[in-house]
Write a structure and sequence with these properties.
The complex is a heterodimer.
Chain A lengths: L3 E2 L7 E4 L9 E2 L6 E2 L4 E4 L8 E2 L4 E10 L5 E9 L16 H10 L10 H5 L8 E5 L13 H19 L3 E7 L3 H7 L3 E2 L2 E2 L2 E3 L6 H8 L3 E6 L8 H9 L14 E5 H13 L5 E7 L5 E7 L4 H7 L8 E4 L6 E3 L12 E5 L17 H5 L6 H10 L2 H6 L10 H5 L6 H15 L21
Parallel strand pairs in A: 1-17, 9-10, 9-15, 10-14, 13-14, 16-20
Antiparallel strand pairs in A: 2-8, 3-5, 4-7, 5-6, 7-8, 11-12, 16-17, 18-19, 18-20
Chain B lengths: L16 H23 L1 H24 L10 H10 L9 H16 L11 H12 L1 H4 L32 H7 L6 H28 L5 H6 L11 H4 L2 H10 L10 H21 L2 H14 L1 H7 L10 H12 L11
Helix pairs in contact in B: 1-2, 1-3, 1-7, 2-3, 2-4, 3-4, 3-5, 4-5, 5-13, 8-12, 11-13, 12-13, 12-14
Classes of the chains: A alpha/beta, B mainly alpha.
Chain lengths: 449, 336
Amino acid sequence: MEIKTLDILPEKVIIPLKQHIGAVCDPIVKKGDRVLVGQKIGQSEEYVSSAVHSSVCGEVIAIEQCANPDGNKVMSVVIQPEQSDERVEFSSSQSLSSDELADIIKDCGIVEHYGAPTHAVLRPKGKKIDIVLINATSSEWIGGKYKNPEEYAYQMMDALKLLMKTSGASKGAIVLRTDDRESIEAFDGIKVDNRRIVVAPLVGGRKLDYYYKEQGSDVVVVSQKRIYGKKILNFFTYNVTGRKVGSGCDPTDVGVAICGVKSAKALYDVVHSGKPYYETVVSLEGVDGKTDHIQVKIGTLFKDIIEACGYNGKIGKIIANGVRTGVAQYTDQVPVTKGTTRITLQKPEHVLIDESTHCIHCARCVDVCTVELLPSRIAVMADKGQFDECRKLHIENCIECGDCAAVCPSRIHILQFIRYAKQSIGLAYEGVPSESASGPKAGSACGGE
Amino acid sequence: MTYVISAPPHKKERIDIQKLNMGKIIALIPLCLVAIYFFGVPAIQLIITTVLAAVITELGIQKIFKQKVTIGDGHAALIGLMLALLIPPEAPLWIPVFGGFFAIAFGKHVFGGIGSYIFSPVLVSWIFMRSAWATHMTALSLPNTGQLSDLILESGAGMLVDVSPIALIAGLYLIHKRYIEWRIPVSFFATIVLIPQTLLFLSGVYGLIQHGVLNPLMYLSQLFAFLSISPELPYAMVGVLFFGIIFLATDTPTTPVTKNGRLIYGMLCGLLVFIYGYFGNYVEGTLYGIFLASCVSSFIEMNTRPTSYGNASFIERIYGRIKAKVPESLKFEVIK
């Protein structure tokens, strides 16, 4: 896979001070300051937060609320870059202890693509992690520049070891996609600790535990079917490790930490070159269906990327992070953040304008559902506000992949109904102790096989 | 530049209600053509009147109640067409007019329009007219001869739909294109075929028992009964049965939405049709059988709801069901 590097001098870059779940960073630069590449410009004392670095060398022209690809406005540092690559001194720091690694992760601003700061995933407060997974099913190569497939595989294995060391977990695994031959071949046959890696498929009842036992190793590489969605983590955990995550819990509750390729690569870079997380690779899916992979600096505006790739026709819709669940942008003045993986452009004539009609119970949504739900029934219950009924229909299992809404002949906004119901359930039980009999966690404590 | 913002997903499959209905109408056109060829002008009259009556009724109702007019989605036309195929061509012309009106008004809109009815409007109308004007609704002949050529051209066709079962082959294409879901047709058809064959096998075994045969091989050999065609089967293979399997039983609002539920629904249809057909005839048996099966479709759906991640085994599911029935006061648990 070819990865281009965006090599332009943009008018300005916008670096949001919150590119993660958790506390907003406080800016540590002022308007008028000159910042260097890799200089820290925002940090927070809170544990669940992650530092933010400048990706360019230039002058801070404003610190203000700016549009964010999430769709809302976030306090951001606006920098006017200059033609210079002056950067702060990066120092590689090898053979670190577990605590030092966690500090470095926070300090260098490494976050997962789903938003959680990596150190908070690896070392959650009050929980013990015993398996670290690298999810390479959706963004296999995207995440950094590699000379060849082997280098990618070796770096991932090294990164996995670093992640395991940070979290104190004894076991780790890299999860590939079954139909992604390129990555599977990259991993197949490489030698780690004098042991050949064999990519094992996750089929039937054979979950991770089986392969740990069979291969007699604590680090395995497995492959599974492609699954995607916004709230994929619980289902992914169940699929890979066989551990069921109760509703209202997350994988860390059952001792599983899930990292992405991007954050693994970022950690590898930090440890080996000291470079903080200020560059990322995004895929640009153009109007003609061609996809480019571009390495960009965090904070680069969508407009600059689109222009640099030579799309100058009329654009009807700009979508961040995929056509299924992504957010449509109201302006092209939004920056690439750490959580941005994909930008999709649609021509005005391809923009869908649909009107919902009555459900005809065709059950197409039931047939496509990855997690065996009845989306049409959940949508009806959510519409009526009967959220307890939704819970009886296991709404919490929904991974929000949007397949149900995509195949609906009546154009019902099933995904939005489900999100609405989930949110309302969350609000209804906010502050209720989890031991309470009626809470969403009732009957099943987090975790269990 | 301004951009459109909307909720995800931003890319959808190109399918809508109109397409689904049009697909079914097109799949029925070959059958109509064959029927017109054999029955002549009365068949044309019948089809046109029923479709017009259905569409005009829908238009009228939606105008009177100030609803959005949806005759463009083809659902009323499809109902009219399906009903026309179930009326004998000898019937006087007011029968299809009334039938089309009744199907739309009392079969569909009384329940709340598309997607809300619990019985297929076609069957509601057909059964009403069959009870009210039995003389007009009884076909002059019943297709029940047992030759293979009858699958291509029915010699004793009574209604338009019976004229040529093979003309419904476009229904298979609809199943392939997922306009019609495969579970109900497959389980329906399998049940209809397997029940007579099983009866043949059982009657063979019963005969051996009566003769006091002790050799187990003799009993085993009765399994060959499944290879020979039961004499009951040719009676079942009539056009209206195939029509029912592909178009009537799969009317989506009247079927369960769960995957297992649809399989069970298909089997139930098969069983009911077989019972009626065995003692009566398969032409009416199909229509009554499907009508009765849709009575219990929501019951089937409630009992086949998938469990979390859909991975509970059969025993787990039974245990869960029993546990749910135990009153709260009788439950006790270990306090941690």
